[in-house]
Design brief:
It comes from Malassezia brasiliensis. By secondary structure, the protein is α+β, with helices and mostly antiparallel strands. It contains 19 helices and 25 strands. The chain has 3 domains: 271 residues, 3 helical TM bundles of succinate and fumarate reductases, CATH 1.20.1300; 206 residues, 2-Layer Sandwich (Gyrase A, domain 2), CATH 3.30.1360.10; 132 residues, Beta Complex (RNA Polymerase Alpha Subunit, Chain A, domain 2). β6 and β7 form a beta hairpin.
């Protein structure tokens, strides 16, 4: 902390604007050839840069020797360093935390900001153009799309050194800051200061247009506060100079009472060491999603501080009892822990609150006919119950009876009936009841007609018409009030291009098809999924430093994208989800003790492919609905047991 009794330095005698101008001028001269975002450099580079500045030297030595920082990423001094550094550390934090729910919620929140920008008057097309590079990098995190490689730290650095992508992200973040300030002008206008000779402060509109949206203008405390609040994150800024905060935005604990009233609390982390750097936390009262990291501020410039590596696995994963052990020729620790008295010292009794806290479900990939999602915090029995329910218990509608009036094709009647039964039908099962032993009626049966004929159209060249019979030729014949109740989604085949039969000239078929509601347990044609499977999330631990000559071989023992260079041990896990757990690494004696393999017992990676009857994202809710109804019936039966016993 600065000492009020110390004689002000020449730098501290300068006004805020003079300090910013001086800092920017020096940075522009020194960093003309510097990349937009550098690789991690040791803190020693700052000692060399400020070798003649005693005030800075003490603080740099404190950073190097007594703080938890080990390096720095230098940002090019082009007036956009804050916004560029913020965008980089925001994505870097989400990437390295490996928290898929957080990634999902952060992405949703970013998308929601587009509406804020639209309401503020920004052109929707322009906003999307500047947002696209940021959105694309967010989408590459945890990507499972083969055509879209997963984001790595190296790829992130490469993207931020691409001027077009990097500057687009800067402009987008400036837009968000400006829109947030304009929307909340009443809260932030009192903190605007005059930048003109007449002494009148600008309006928020003027400030946002002139200082925030202008490319190449440095950010002040007001902008930092607004951006952190808009994105629902916290940010720590470490000040190399004691002349860090303009008087009107002095950190909490300082002398300016007004600063504590600014929306977005700023908390100063105190230290008794006179050389310690001031640290200001830009925080929210509530609702923040995560801390994006630390920026280092020097007059007119921001860089990124790199902290010591911390374990990137959740506490739940670090519990070895929760991991199925993968050994060269066997597996271990396969017993479930979700039953009473399974774990010594723990009752294992059901606790709804604890279950809700652990349970996580999030979508990782969605295609027109397929979805992948992750289910976390449940026992394998629950996951398997959902899988079996998806396959065999979720109801659909399929062809059950075929009344053939005429079939002169080469396909036998029984084979043709079987083929027709396997054609998926887009019929809402909630509109029908189970037929059981009832007579067919408009409440339990949907009727289709099929009429097809193959005939020659030109005897000379042998051209024929109607050689193929397609599913699209099935014609719905509404009965009763079905024309009204099913008008919003008329029954039809899911895929009209399915070939039912091939005929020769002169052959024909005519039949009536009765469709009923059923479940896959009765017949596979009623199953709403082509496949439904899950696997446990692989868990890979790099237990010790990997010698440089062995790094390429170790990485090659895993599928592409699983491991990458970096981390404290020379190699780190980039995406464990891509691992097939082939145990290839366990075959090589040189890696003995370096790598430990496993699977997390309560983290399930589901893959579900729909037949088209249901939208893929609707399958899991449908399966849960079926399970809930079955449990309700079970509860009724259990409740009736005491009464039956008493009787």
């Amino acid at each position: 902390m600065s000492n009020s009794e110390t004689k002000p330095s020449e730098l501290e005698r300068l006004s805020d604007s003079e300090r910013l101008d001086l800092g920017q001028k020096l940075l522009n001269e020194e960093g003309a050839d510097r990349p937009l975002v550098s690789e991690v450099e040791p803190l020693d580079v700052l000692l060399q840069e400020y070798a003649k500045n005693r005030q800075f030297l003490g603080k740099i030595k404190w950073l190097k020797e007594k703080s938890h920082f080990v390096g720095i990423r230098r940002l090019k001094g082009d007036g956009n360093c804050f916004y560029r550094a913020f965008g980089f550390t925001y994505l870097y934090t989400i990437l390295t935390m490996d928290d898929r729910p957080l990634h999902h919620f952060a992405g949703q929140h970013l998308d929601s900001l587009l509406e804020l920008l639209k309401q503020t008057g920004y052109d929707e097309g322009v906003v999307k153009d500047f947002y696209e590079p940021f959105q694309d990098l967010m989408g590459q995190i945890h990507s499972t799309d083969p055509s879209r490689p997963a984001l790595t730290v190296d790829r992130l650095v490469e993207a931020f050194n691409d001027p077009e992508k990097s500057n687009s992200i800067v402009v987008f973040l400036r837009m968000v800051t400006s829109a947030f300030l304009k929307t909340n002008a009443n809260d932030y206008t009192p903190f605007l200061v005059s930048t003109t000779d007449n002494g009148d402060p600008p309006t928020m509109e003027e400030f946002a247009n002139r200082e925030v949206e202008a490319f190449g203008k440095d950010a002040d405390h007001l902008q930092i506060t607004a951006l952190c609040t808009a994105l629902k994150v916290t940010l720590d800024v470490v000040y190399l100079s004691s002349a860090h905060a303009p008087p009107e935005t002095e950190p909490v604990g300082g002398e300016a009472e007004a600063a504590s009233d600014m929306p977005g609390n700023k908390e100063e982390v105190p230290s008794s060491d006179p050389n310690a750097c001031d640290v200001v936390r830009f925080d929210l009262d509530q609702g923040q999603m995560f801390n994006v990291g630390h920026l280092l501020y020097r007059p007119g410039h921001f860089d990124l501080l790199v902290a010591k590596s911390e374990p990137d696995s959740p506490d739940r994963i670090m519990d070895r009892s929760n991991i199925v052990e993968i050994h060269p020729e066997r597996v271990g620790n396969v017993s479930s822990k979700s039953f009473p008295l399974q774990v010594p010292g723990e009752s294992g009794a059901w606790n709804t609150e604890a279950f809700q806290k652990k349970l996580q479900v999030f979508l990782t990939r969605l295609l027109p006919d397929q979805c992948e999602f992750e289910l976390v915090g449940v026992d394998a029995s629950i996951a398997n119950a959902l899988r079996r329910t998806l396959i065999a218990e979720v109801p659909t509608v399929a062809i059950e009876h075929v009344y053939i009036w005429n079939n002169t094709s080469i396909i036998q009647d029984e084979v043709l009936s079987h083929r027709l039964g396997l054609v998926p039908l887009a019929v809402d099962p909630s509109k029908l009841t189970f037929k059981l032993d009832d007579e067919a009626n408009d409440q339990n049966t949907v009727v289709f007609n099929l009429k097809a004929e193959c005939k020659k159209t030109n005897a000379k060249d042998g051209t024929v018409e109607g050689r193929y019979v397609y599913a699209s030729q099935l014609e719905w014949d509404p009965k009763g009030d079905q024309a009204e109740t099913m008008a919003d989604a008329p029954p039809r085949p899911v895929n009209g291009d399915i070939v039912i039969a091939k005929m020769a000239p002169g052959q024909r078929m005519e039949m009536e098809l009765h469709c009923e509601k059923g479940i896959g347990k009765d017949h596979a044609k009623f199953s709403p999924v082509a496949t439904a499977s899950y696997r446990l999330l692989p868990h890979i631990e790099i237990c010790q430093m990997v010698p440089e000559p062995l790094i390429p071989k170790l990485i090659s023992c895993f599928p592409e994208g699983v491991l990458e260079r970096g981390g404290d041990n020379g190699v780190r896990v980039a995406d464990a989800r891509k691992d097939t757990v082939s145990r290839e690494v366990l075959r090589h004696p040189e890696f003995e003790g370096m790598v430990r393999l496993g699977r997390i017992q309560d983290h399930f990676l589901f893959s579900v492919e729909s037949t088209g009857v249901y939208e893929p994202e609707a399958l899991l809710p449908a399966a849960i609905d079926v399970l809930q109804k079955k449990l309700a019936l079970l509860k009724l039966a259990l409740d009736a047991l005491p009464a039956e016993a008493a009787a």
